Amino acid sequence: MYHRFVAAQVRKAFAEITAGNWEAMVQGMAPTFTYRFYGDHALSGERRTHEALRRWWQRAFRLLPDTRFTVDEILVSGWPWNTRVATAVTVDCGLADGTRYQNVVNQFIRMRWGKITEVRTLEDTAVLQAALDRLAAAGYAEAHAAPITDLVPTT
To answer: What is the pTM of this model?
Structure first.
């Protein structure tokens, strides 16, 4: 029963994000968390603060507006004090250059007492990079910007 509840909450979170309400996902993060998007592109990097995650979602929706997330599969294991979730999600949106962006995202999530403590996002980076390259060529410089992180450079 608990696993079904968690799966329903994950589906609801993706529906909220599809509706443009990514703030609900940010609010679902624990006070201490890690959000990692693999690759070497404008959406990659690691964030550990709510503020950095908000800036990341703002960029994601500027580059990929009206993104639709379709949950294909959710696997849940563990108990409330150590829950693990794996998702396969199809991403689809129209880009500003008139092309479509479609990809599959796999996320591995850890939760503790209903709050997300870790997200690892894996996406076909070649497909994503090609879309970002098309956007940059169309004049969207942010598509080639450095990743958003909360790490302060040391001198």
So the answer is: 0.91
145-149: long-range contacts at Cβ-Cβ below 8 A with a sequence spacing of 24 or more? 145/42, 145/59, 146/42, 147/37, 147/41, 147/42, 147/43, 147/44, 147/45, 148/45, 148/47, 148/52, 148/55, 148/56, 148/59, 149/45, 149/46, 149/47, 149/52
- Whole-number Å distance between alpha carbons of 153 and 146: 13
Residue 124 tokens, joined:
């076909």
Burial class of residue 40, CB neighbours in 10 A (0-12, 13-18, 19+): exposed
Which residue's entry shows tokens 């995650």? 53
- CA 71 to CA 86: how far, in whole Å? 11
Which residues on adjacent β-strands are paired with residue 82? 79
Q: What pLDDT is stored for residue 151 in this prediction?
A: 67
Give mean pLDDT, residues 90-106: 94
Average pLDDT (116-144) is: 96
